[in-house]
Amino acid sequence: MKAITLNSFGAPEEMHITEVPNPEIGENEILVRVHATALNRADLLQRQGKYPPPEGESTIMGLEMAGVVYKTGFGVSKWKEGDAVCGLLPGGGYAQLARIHEDMAWPVPQGFSMEKAVAIPEVFLTAFQAIRLLADLQQDETLLIHAGASGVGTAAIQLAKAIGARPIVTASKGKHDFCRKLGAAHAIDYKNEDFESVIYSLTNGRGADVIMDFIGGPYFQKNLNSLALEGRLVMQGFMGGPKPAAVNLAPILRKRLKLIGSTLRSRTLDYKIALAKDLYNFAWPLFESGDLKPIIDSVFDWEEIVKAHHYMEANKNIGKIILKVN
Ligand SMILES: NC(=O)c1ccc[n+]([C@@H]2O[C@H](COP(=O)([O-])OP(=O)(O)OC[C@H]3O[C@@H](n4cnc5c(N)ncnc54)[C@H](OP(=O)(O)O)[C@@H]3O)[C@@H](O)[C@H]2O)c1
User: Is the beta carbon of 128 within 6 A of some atom in ligand 1?
Assistant: First the structure.
Protein backbone atom coordinates (compact mmCIF):
# COMPACT_ATOMS: atom_id res chain seq x y z
CA MET A 1 0.00 0.00 0.00
CA LYS A 2 0.95 3.65 -0.14
CA ALA A 3 1.34 5.76 2.99
CA ILE A 4 2.70 9.13 4.08
CA THR A 5 6.07 8.46 5.70
CA LEU A 6 8.90 10.60 7.05
CA ASN A 7 12.43 10.90 5.67
CA SER A 8 13.41 11.99 9.16
CA PHE A 9 11.77 13.90 12.02
CA GLY A 10 11.41 17.61 11.28
CA ALA A 11 9.58 20.06 9.02
CA PRO A 12 6.46 19.26 6.95
CA GLU A 13 8.74 18.89 3.89
CA GLU A 14 10.04 15.61 5.41
CA MET A 15 6.70 13.90 4.55
CA HIS A 16 6.30 11.90 1.32
CA ILE A 17 3.96 9.28 -0.09
CA THR A 18 5.89 6.00 -0.31
CA GLU A 19 5.24 2.28 -0.72
CA VAL A 20 5.10 0.33 2.59
CA PRO A 21 3.94 -3.19 3.61
CA ASN A 22 0.21 -3.69 4.23
CA PRO A 23 -0.75 -3.81 7.96
CA GLU A 24 -1.47 -7.28 9.32
CA ILE A 25 -4.71 -7.79 11.23
CA GLY A 26 -5.20 -9.94 14.31
CA GLU A 27 -8.22 -11.44 16.05
CA ASN A 28 -11.28 -9.14 16.16
CA GLU A 29 -9.61 -6.58 13.91
CA ILE A 30 -10.64 -5.26 10.51
CA LEU A 31 -8.58 -3.82 7.69
CA VAL A 32 -10.12 -0.67 6.21
CA ARG A 33 -9.47 0.87 2.78
CA VAL A 34 -9.07 4.47 3.94
CA HIS A 35 -10.91 7.10 1.89
CA ALA A 36 -10.29 10.03 4.25
CA THR A 37 -8.15 10.83 7.28
CA ALA A 38 -7.71 14.11 9.20
CA LEU A 39 -4.99 16.21 10.81
CA ASN A 40 -4.48 16.48 14.54
CA ARG A 41 -2.06 18.58 16.59
CA ALA A 42 -0.52 15.27 17.74
CA ASP A 43 0.55 14.63 14.13
CA LEU A 44 2.59 17.84 14.13
CA LEU A 45 4.37 16.71 17.31
CA GLN A 46 4.88 13.15 16.00
CA ARG A 47 6.37 14.55 12.79
CA GLN A 48 8.86 16.51 14.90
CA GLY A 49 9.80 13.41 16.92
CA LYS A 50 8.14 14.76 20.10
CA TYR A 51 5.19 12.35 20.35
CA PRO A 52 6.08 8.71 19.65
CA PRO A 53 3.22 6.26 18.99
CA PRO A 54 2.30 3.84 21.79
CA GLU A 55 4.41 0.65 21.97
CA GLY A 56 3.54 -1.84 19.21
CA GLU A 57 1.36 0.56 17.19
CA SER A 58 1.91 1.83 13.64
CA THR A 59 4.63 4.45 13.29
CA ILE A 60 2.63 6.05 10.46
CA MET A 61 0.82 9.28 11.51
CA GLY A 62 -2.96 9.62 11.47
CA LEU A 63 -5.35 9.13 14.41
CA GLU A 64 -8.64 8.68 12.54
CA MET A 65 -10.09 7.34 9.35
CA ALA A 66 -13.26 6.81 7.31
CA GLY A 67 -13.38 4.15 4.64
CA VAL A 68 -14.68 0.78 3.58
CA VAL A 69 -14.01 -2.62 5.21
CA TYR A 70 -11.48 -4.42 2.99
CA LYS A 71 -10.83 -7.55 5.05
CA THR A 72 -12.07 -9.01 8.35
CA GLY A 73 -9.92 -10.87 10.89
CA PHE A 74 -10.70 -14.04 12.83
CA GLY A 75 -13.67 -13.64 15.20
CA VAL A 76 -15.07 -10.44 13.65
CA SER A 77 -18.86 -10.51 13.88
CA LYS A 78 -19.90 -6.86 13.49
CA TRP A 79 -18.64 -6.03 10.00
CA LYS A 80 -18.36 -7.48 6.51
CA GLU A 81 -16.35 -6.44 3.46
CA GLY A 82 -17.79 -3.30 1.86
CA ASP A 83 -19.27 -1.75 5.06
CA ALA A 84 -18.64 1.99 5.42
CA VAL A 85 -16.95 2.71 8.76
CA CYS A 86 -15.11 5.45 10.63
CA GLY A 87 -13.17 5.49 13.87
CA LEU A 88 -10.29 6.49 16.11
CA LEU A 89 -6.89 4.89 15.46
CA PRO A 90 -3.80 4.60 17.67
CA GLY A 91 -1.88 5.57 14.47
CA GLY A 92 -1.64 4.56 10.83
CA GLY A 93 -4.38 6.76 9.33
CA TYR A 94 -2.18 8.49 6.73
CA ALA A 95 -2.29 5.31 4.60
CA GLN A 96 -4.41 3.46 2.05
CA LEU A 97 -5.08 0.64 4.55
CA ALA A 98 -5.52 0.89 8.31
CA ARG A 99 -6.29 -1.69 10.96
CA ILE A 100 -8.78 -1.14 13.76
CA HIS A 101 -10.46 -3.27 16.45
CA GLU A 102 -14.01 -4.08 15.34
CA ASP A 103 -15.48 -2.44 18.48
CA MET A 104 -13.64 0.84 17.80
CA ALA A 105 -15.24 1.21 14.37
CA TRP A 106 -18.60 2.98 13.97
CA PRO A 107 -20.90 2.95 10.97
CA VAL A 108 -20.61 6.12 8.88
CA PRO A 109 -23.72 8.14 9.92
CA GLN A 110 -26.51 8.03 7.36
CA GLY A 111 -26.15 10.70 4.70
CA PHE A 112 -22.53 11.49 5.66
CA SER A 113 -19.67 11.61 3.15
CA MET A 114 -16.34 10.03 4.12
CA GLU A 115 -14.89 13.54 4.60
CA LYS A 116 -17.67 14.46 7.01
CA ALA A 117 -17.47 11.14 8.91
CA VAL A 118 -13.73 11.43 9.47
CA ALA A 119 -14.26 14.80 11.16
CA ILE A 120 -15.96 13.00 14.08
CA PRO A 121 -13.65 10.58 15.93
CA GLU A 122 -10.78 12.45 17.56
CA VAL A 123 -12.49 15.74 18.39
CA PHE A 124 -15.88 14.41 19.48
CA LEU A 125 -14.33 11.63 21.60
CA THR A 126 -11.95 14.13 23.24
CA ALA A 127 -14.69 16.67 23.96
CA PHE A 128 -17.17 13.99 25.08
CA GLN A 129 -14.59 12.43 27.39
CA ALA A 130 -13.87 15.84 28.96
CA ILE A 131 -17.47 16.93 29.34
CA ARG A 132 -19.17 13.70 30.37
CA LEU A 133 -16.54 11.50 32.00
CA LEU A 134 -13.87 13.80 33.37
CA ALA A 135 -15.78 16.95 34.35
CA ASP A 136 -19.34 15.58 34.59
CA LEU A 137 -20.71 18.86 33.21
CA GLN A 138 -24.33 19.42 34.27
CA GLN A 139 -27.27 21.22 32.72
CA ASP A 140 -27.17 25.01 33.35
CA GLU A 141 -23.48 24.93 34.32
CA THR A 142 -21.02 27.29 32.61
CA LEU A 143 -18.23 25.73 30.54
CA LEU A 144 -15.26 27.84 29.44
CA ILE A 145 -13.64 26.31 26.34
CA HIS A 146 -10.17 27.60 25.44
CA ALA A 147 -9.27 27.42 21.72
CA GLY A 148 -13.03 27.36 21.10
CA ALA A 149 -12.68 27.37 17.32
CA SER A 150 -10.34 24.36 17.28
CA GLY A 151 -11.61 20.99 16.12
CA VAL A 152 -12.08 19.88 19.74
CA GLY A 153 -13.54 23.28 20.68
CA THR A 154 -16.22 23.18 17.96
CA ALA A 155 -17.25 19.70 19.13
CA ALA A 156 -17.29 20.84 22.78
CA ILE A 157 -19.52 23.87 22.06
CA GLN A 158 -22.13 21.61 20.46
CA LEU A 159 -21.96 18.84 23.08
CA ALA A 160 -22.29 21.39 25.90
CA LYS A 161 -25.35 22.89 24.21
CA ALA A 162 -26.83 19.42 23.67
CA ILE A 163 -26.79 18.76 27.43
CA GLY A 164 -28.19 22.19 28.27
CA ALA A 165 -24.99 23.78 29.61
CA ARG A 166 -23.70 27.28 28.75
CA PRO A 167 -20.51 27.26 26.63
CA ILE A 168 -18.25 30.35 26.57
CA VAL A 169 -15.14 30.30 24.40
CA THR A 170 -11.81 32.03 23.99
CA ALA A 171 -10.63 32.37 20.39
CA SER A 172 -9.03 34.90 18.09
CA LYS A 173 -11.51 37.59 17.05
CA GLY A 174 -12.04 36.52 13.44
CA LYS A 175 -13.43 33.18 14.69
CA HIS A 176 -16.03 34.62 17.11
CA ASP A 177 -19.05 34.77 14.79
CA PHE A 178 -18.59 31.14 13.87
CA CYS A 179 -18.38 30.07 17.52
CA ARG A 180 -21.50 32.05 18.42
CA LYS A 181 -23.47 30.58 15.49
CA LEU A 182 -22.45 27.13 16.69
CA GLY A 183 -23.92 27.82 20.12
CA ALA A 184 -21.34 29.69 22.20
CA ALA A 185 -23.11 32.11 24.56
CA HIS A 186 -20.12 34.45 24.44
CA ALA A 187 -16.71 34.61 22.73
CA ILE A 188 -13.68 36.20 24.42
CA ASP A 189 -10.89 37.74 22.32
CA TYR A 190 -8.04 36.29 24.37
CA LYS A 191 -5.43 38.39 22.55
CA ASN A 192 -7.01 41.68 23.66
CA GLU A 193 -9.21 40.81 26.65
CA ASP A 194 -8.50 39.35 30.07
CA PHE A 195 -10.58 36.14 30.10
CA GLU A 196 -10.56 35.99 33.92
CA SER A 197 -12.35 39.33 34.32
CA VAL A 198 -14.74 38.63 31.41
CA ILE A 199 -15.73 35.27 32.96
CA TYR A 200 -16.35 36.97 36.29
CA SER A 201 -18.62 39.59 34.80
CA LEU A 202 -20.49 37.02 32.64
CA THR A 203 -21.18 34.82 35.69
CA ASN A 204 -21.94 37.60 38.21
CA GLY A 205 -18.71 36.86 40.06
CA ARG A 206 -19.29 33.09 40.38
CA GLY A 207 -16.75 31.83 37.84
CA ALA A 208 -16.95 28.92 35.39
CA ASP A 209 -18.04 25.51 36.65
CA VAL A 210 -15.77 23.71 34.18
CA ILE A 211 -12.82 24.83 32.05
CA MET A 212 -11.52 22.81 29.11
CA ASP A 213 -7.92 23.89 28.65
CA PHE A 214 -5.49 23.16 25.81
CA ILE A 215 -3.10 26.06 26.44
CA GLY A 216 -1.44 25.00 29.72
CA GLY A 217 1.31 27.01 31.44
CA PRO A 218 0.39 30.60 30.53
CA TYR A 219 -3.28 30.03 31.50
CA PHE A 220 -2.83 27.96 34.67
CA GLN A 221 -3.14 30.71 37.28
CA LYS A 222 -5.96 32.48 35.42
CA ASN A 223 -7.81 29.17 35.06
CA LEU A 224 -7.62 28.55 38.83
CA ASN A 225 -8.80 32.10 39.44
CA SER A 226 -11.67 31.80 36.91
CA LEU A 227 -13.25 28.65 38.38
CA ALA A 228 -16.34 28.67 40.56
CA LEU A 229 -16.65 26.86 43.89
CA GLU A 230 -16.15 23.10 43.25
CA GLY A 231 -15.06 23.92 39.69
CA ARG A 232 -13.26 21.38 37.49
CA LEU A 233 -10.24 22.12 35.29
CA VAL A 234 -9.72 19.56 32.51
CA MET A 235 -6.30 19.81 30.84
CA GLN A 236 -5.93 18.02 27.49
CA GLY A 237 -3.25 20.00 25.68
CA PHE A 238 -0.38 22.43 26.22
CA MET A 239 -0.30 24.54 23.05
CA GLY A 240 1.17 27.40 25.12
CA GLY A 241 3.72 25.13 26.87
CA PRO A 242 3.54 22.91 29.98
CA LYS A 243 5.27 25.18 32.52
CA PRO A 244 3.43 27.92 34.44
CA ALA A 245 5.25 30.86 36.01
CA ALA A 246 5.06 31.13 39.82
CA VAL A 247 1.63 29.91 40.85
CA ASN A 248 -0.57 30.69 43.82
CA LEU A 249 -2.30 27.38 44.61
CA ALA A 250 -4.65 28.87 47.23
CA PRO A 251 -7.75 28.77 44.96
CA ILE A 252 -7.50 24.95 44.77
CA LEU A 253 -8.16 24.58 48.50
CA ARG A 254 -10.34 27.61 48.99
CA LYS A 255 -12.73 26.70 46.15
CA ARG A 256 -12.37 22.88 46.46
CA LEU A 257 -11.24 22.60 42.82
CA LYS A 258 -10.57 19.44 40.84
CA LEU A 259 -7.66 19.32 38.37
CA ILE A 260 -7.89 16.55 35.78
CA GLY A 261 -5.48 15.73 32.94
CA SER A 262 -5.89 13.19 30.18
CA THR A 263 -4.76 11.99 26.78
CA LEU A 264 -6.96 9.73 24.69
CA ARG A 265 -4.16 7.95 22.85
CA SER A 266 -2.60 6.41 25.97
CA ARG A 267 -5.88 4.95 27.27
CA THR A 268 -6.44 1.18 27.26
CA LEU A 269 -8.38 -0.44 24.44
CA ASP A 270 -11.20 -1.34 26.86
CA TYR A 271 -11.52 2.29 28.00
CA LYS A 272 -11.61 3.55 24.42
CA ILE A 273 -14.18 0.93 23.38
CA ALA A 274 -16.48 1.94 26.26
CA LEU A 275 -16.06 5.65 25.42
CA ALA A 276 -16.70 5.01 21.72
CA LYS A 277 -19.89 3.10 22.59
CA ASP A 278 -21.15 5.90 24.88
CA LEU A 279 -20.48 8.57 22.24
CA TYR A 280 -22.19 6.44 19.58
CA ASN A 281 -25.34 6.07 21.73
CA PHE A 282 -25.41 9.77 22.57
CA ALA A 283 -24.36 11.38 19.30
CA TRP A 284 -25.38 9.23 16.31
CA PRO A 285 -29.09 10.15 16.51
CA LEU A 286 -28.03 13.82 16.78
CA PHE A 287 -25.61 13.59 13.81
CA GLU A 288 -28.30 11.93 11.70
CA SER A 289 -30.94 14.53 12.67
CA GLY A 290 -28.50 17.40 11.96
CA ASP A 291 -28.47 18.64 15.57
CA LEU A 292 -24.74 17.87 15.86
CA LYS A 293 -22.37 18.73 13.03
CA PRO A 294 -18.74 17.82 12.52
CA ILE A 295 -17.09 21.10 11.51
CA ILE A 296 -14.86 20.89 8.44
CA ASP A 297 -12.52 23.77 7.73
CA SER A 298 -10.90 22.44 4.57
CA VAL A 299 -10.29 19.31 2.52
CA PHE A 300 -6.83 18.62 1.04
CA ASP A 301 -5.75 15.84 -1.27
CA TRP A 302 -3.21 13.69 0.58
CA GLU A 303 -0.61 14.69 -2.01
CA GLU A 304 -0.91 18.19 -0.46
CA ILE A 305 0.09 16.94 3.00
CA VAL A 306 2.96 19.44 3.34
CA LYS A 307 0.60 22.35 2.64
CA ALA A 308 -2.00 20.95 5.06
CA HIS A 309 0.52 20.73 7.95
CA HIS A 310 1.73 24.29 7.31
CA TYR A 311 -1.91 25.44 7.31
CA MET A 312 -2.58 23.88 10.75
CA GLU A 313 0.67 25.29 12.15
CA ALA A 314 -0.44 28.77 11.06
CA ASN A 315 -3.60 28.41 13.27
CA LYS A 316 -5.80 29.29 10.29
CA ASN A 317 -8.46 26.61 10.69
CA ILE A 318 -11.89 26.60 12.31
CA GLY A 319 -12.70 22.91 12.83
CA LYS A 320 -11.12 19.98 11.05
CA ILE A 321 -8.56 19.77 8.26
CA ILE A 322 -9.38 16.67 6.19
CA LEU A 323 -7.12 14.65 3.86
CA LYS A 324 -8.60 12.68 0.97
CA VAL A 325 -6.67 9.44 0.52
CA ASN A 326 -6.46 8.10 -3.05
N1 LIG B 1 -5.66 15.01 25.41
C2 LIG B 1 -6.29 14.50 24.37
O3 LIG B 1 -6.78 13.37 24.44
C4 LIG B 1 -6.42 15.31 23.12
C5 LIG B 1 -7.02 14.77 21.97
C6 LIG B 1 -7.17 15.59 20.83
C7 LIG B 1 -6.69 16.89 20.86
N8 LIG B 1 -6.08 17.34 22.00
C9 LIG B 1 -5.56 18.71 22.07
O10 LIG B 1 -6.63 19.60 21.83
C11 LIG B 1 -6.10 20.84 21.36
C12 LIG B 1 -6.90 21.26 20.15
O13 LIG B 1 -6.64 20.33 19.10
P14 LIG B 1 -7.33 20.53 17.67
O15 LIG B 1 -6.80 19.50 16.75
O16 LIG B 1 -8.78 20.62 17.88
O17 LIG B 1 -6.71 21.97 17.30
P18 LIG B 1 -6.89 22.87 16.01
O19 LIG B 1 -8.17 22.56 15.30
O20 LIG B 1 -5.64 22.80 15.23
O21 LIG B 1 -7.04 24.35 16.63
C22 LIG B 1 -6.08 24.90 17.46
C23 LIG B 1 -6.39 26.39 17.69
O24 LIG B 1 -5.93 26.75 19.00
C25 LIG B 1 -5.59 28.12 19.02
N26 LIG B 1 -4.25 28.24 19.59
C27 LIG B 1 -3.10 27.68 19.14
N28 LIG B 1 -2.07 27.99 19.94
C29 LIG B 1 -2.58 28.77 20.92
C30 LIG B 1 -2.01 29.43 22.07
N31 LIG B 1 -0.71 29.32 22.36
N32 LIG B 1 -2.83 30.16 22.86
C33 LIG B 1 -4.15 30.28 22.58
N34 LIG B 1 -4.75 29.68 21.51
C35 LIG B 1 -3.96 28.94 20.70
C36 LIG B 1 -5.64 28.62 17.56
O37 LIG B 1 -6.89 29.30 17.38
P38 LIG B 1 -7.04 30.90 17.59
O39 LIG B 1 -7.04 31.49 16.21
O40 LIG B 1 -8.33 31.05 18.30
O41 LIG B 1 -5.84 31.34 18.38
C42 LIG B 1 -5.66 27.33 16.77
O43 LIG B 1 -6.28 27.44 15.52
C44 LIG B 1 -4.62 20.59 21.07
O45 LIG B 1 -3.86 21.05 22.17
C46 LIG B 1 -4.53 19.08 21.02
O47 LIG B 1 -3.26 18.59 21.33
C48 LIG B 1 -5.96 16.60 23.12
Answer: no
